[in-house]
Amino acid sequence: MNSRRDFLGKITAASIAFPFLKKAASANNPFNEKPSEDRLLRVAIMGLGSYGTRVAEAMQSCTKAKLVGVISGTPSKVKAWQSKYNIPEKNCYNYSNFDEIKNNPDIDAVYVITPNGLHHDEVIRVAKAGKHAISEKPMTVNAQQAQEMIDACKKAGVKLLVGYRMHFEPHTLEIIKMRKAGEFGKVLFFQGLSGFIIGDPTQWRLNKKLSGGGSMMDIGIYSVNGSRYMIGEDPIWVTAQETKNNPVKFKEGIDETIQFQLGFPGGAVASCLSTYSLNYLDRFFLDGTEGFAQMYPSTNYGPIRGQTNKGEIIAPDVTHQTVQMDEMADIILRGKKPEVPVDGEEALKDLKIIDAIYEACRTGKKVKLEL
Amino acid sequence: MNSRRDFLGKITAASIAFPFLKKAASANNPFNEKPSEDRLLRVAIMGLGSYGTRVAEAMQSCTKAKLVGVISGTPSKVKAWQSKYNIPEKNCYNYSNFDEIKNNPDIDAVYVITPNGLHHDEVIRVAKAGKHAISEKPMTVNAQQAQEMIDACKKAGVKLLVGYRMHFEPHTLEIIKMRKAGEFGKVLFFQGLSGFIIGDPTQWRLNKKLSGGGSMMDIGIYSVNGSRYMIGEDPIWVTAQETKNNPVKFKEGIDETIQFQLGFPGGAVASCLSTYSLNYLDRFFLDGTEGFAQMYPSTNYGPIRGQTNKGEIIAPDVTHQTVQMDEMADIILRGKKPEVPVDGEEALKDLKIIDAIYEACRTGKKVKLEL
Prior knowledge:
Two copies of one chain form a homodimer. With 371 residues, chain A is α/β, with parallel strands linked by helices. The radius of gyration of chain A is 21 Å and the shape is globular. In chain A, the strands form two sheets. Chain A has a nine-stranded mixed sheet. In chain A, strands 3-2-1-4-5-6 form a six-stranded parallel sheet, sandwiched between helices. Chain A has helices at residues 3-17, 21-24, 50-59, 75-85, 116-128, 143-156, 170-180, 208-211, 215-231, 320-334, 344-363; strands at residues 41-46, 65-71, 92-93, 109-112, 132-135, 160-162, 187-195, 237-243, 257-263, 269-275, 283-288, 292-295, 306-308, 311-312, 367-368. Helices cover 36% and strands 20% of the residues of chain A. In chain A, helix 3 (50-59) links the parallel strand 1 (41-46) and strand 2. The first copy, chain A, has two domains: 40-162, Rossmann fold, CATH 3.40.50.720; 166-318 and 344-368, Dihydrodipicolinate Reductase, domain 2, CATH 3.30.360. The interface between A and B is medium-sized, with 35 and 35 residues.
C-alpha cells in the first residue's frame, strides 16, 4: 500500500546521496550513444530463485543500481517479478533467447544467480551479448573455466564481477582496516569455520553437475576467500582432508566435510572447516602478535558481529546485497576500485585454491600454489 | 600475619568436607604398618620451579593431600620451602640421593615437576623407591618412554598419575556431562587453539634435550588431550603441518607452530593449532548436530569460561591444582575413578598422538592410530 510513498522516499534519498542522478536522467536520450556514466546501473537478474529474490528485494533500496530485467525459464516467475518490480515485457528473457539482450540498450549488466555449474556458459553468453557480467560465487566450478570467463569478458570489452558481498561489509572492512594499520601486530593465524546442515537432498546443491562440488563450493568458499582478505595475502600451499559420514546424502563428488590448511608467504597459516553437516559455524578468528579479531557470525546475511582484543567492532549493519549492488554500479560505471577486489581475477584465485583443496584431498599431499 | 588464622580455618573446612580426617590422625601411629587409607596423601614435590611453586601454594588449601617433602638440586630453595611449608629435614632430598625415599614411611607419593625430558628416568626411580608417582604433563617425550614408565610403576606396584588438571575442572566437566547427555547432538567437530608467545630463548622449554619438542609438548598437548575429552573418543588418524618462521629462536627439534587434524571413529574431526608465537589463543570449540560449546580460556589456570548454545556454563571457579591433588589423594589412597582418566595409560595415548603428529609433519602423510 505504501509502495508509491516508498518509491518517492527512495528517489529523494537517492538524490541526496547521489546528486549527479539528476544528470543521469538524460542517459535515456537516444542521441547520446555513449551515455554519461553518472547514472544508475541497470541490471537484469538471471535466475529467479531464492538468492535472486533476495538480491531483487535488496536492490529496491539501491541508490545507484536498479533492477530492470529478468532472465528465467519459468514464465510464472517472470510475470510475478514484472508486476512486483515494474519490469517491462521487452526486458524479459528466457534461457533460449537471452543472447538477444545485446540489442537492448536499457540493460547494462546481467547478474547471473543460477546454479554454479551453469555460470561459465551463461557469463560467456552475457559477455558475447556485450553486457557487463556479475556472477554469483563461486564464479564457476574450477580455475580453468574461470580463466575462460575472464578471457571472454576481456575479449568482449565488458566487466566481470563476482558477488563477494562481504567485501563491502562494514564490520569486515573495519577489521581489515585495523589489520592494515598494524593493530594486531604480525598476523600469523586465521581460522575460518564455514558450514550448515543442508536440508532437502534433492536440491541442486547436492547435484554435482549443477553445483560442481559440495560444501566447499557453497559455503567453504567463504573461509577460502576470508582467509585471503583477513590475512591480506594469497596462500602458497594447501593441505586438506575430506571426511564423509553420509555417502547416501553426499554422493560421489559432493564433499560433506573438508578441513583445509593454507600457508601464506608472510608465515601465517590458516586452519579451516567446510561442512554440510553442522550448524553454529560461520566463525572467523584472526590472530596476530599484538591482538586478535573474531567474527560470529562472520559471513551470513547479517547482522555481522566482530570483536577484537580492544572490544566490540562498531560498524553499521547494512543489507549486504544493497551495498554490493550500489558499489558495483560505481565499479562498472565509474571505475571505482573497491577496498577488496570483486573481479574475475579475485574469483580465479579462490577457484585455484579450491582446485588445490580437492587435489590435496585426493592425493593426501601438500599442493603448492602460485596465485 | 593471618597465617595461623588461615591455617585453623583450613583445618575446620577440611574436617567438615572430609570428616574421616579425624581418624586419619592415627595414621602416624608407627605400629600401624599398613596405614588406613582414610588419611591425607603425603606428597613430596620434585622440582621447585615456577609450576612446582604453584602446586605447593595450591596444596595449602588441600583437604586430602599435604606437601610433606621436597626433592631439589638447589639447597637454598630447599631451605626456603622447609621454612615456608614446615618440611622436616628428613623429608628433603636431592637428585643424587632421592632413591633413599624408599626408607621414608612419611611420604606416599612424589610429584615430578621437572623438565619433560627428565620425567622418564625420575618416575622410574620413584617407582623403584616404592612411592606412587605423579608426573607433570607431558608425562614424557614419546610413547615408548611412556610405556616404560607404565611398566615400571606396574612392576613396582605403585600408581602412576599425570597432572591433567583440566580433568577435574568444573566448567570442563559440565560440558563433558552435557555432551554425554546428548545435548549437542552428534558431535562432529572439535577445534583447539593452544599457544602463547614464549619469552626467554634460553629457557629449558626451548632445549630439545630437556623439553623433547617445542610448543606441541608444552601447550599443544592441551588441544591433543582436549580433543579426546571434549569429543569423548580416541582419534584414529592424524595429519599435521609444521611452520617455522623463526629458526634462530626455535632450533632443530623445537616446533614453533604446528597445525594438526584428527579423525575419530564416530566421524568427528578436529582442527588444532599449537604455537609458541601467538597469544590470545587457549580456545576450544565443540560442535554437534544439535548444539555447540566454546571455551575461552579453555585450559589456562583460570578462571575458565564456557558457553553453549543454551548460554553461559555456570560452574565454580576453583584452584585447579588444589582440586587435582585432593582428587589424586582419593584416586591413590581410595581407588576413586575420576570422570576423565589421569593415569599413565591416558598419557600414553596423548604421546602416541604427539608421536604421530611429529611423524605426519616429517612425512607429509596421514598417520593411522590405534590407541
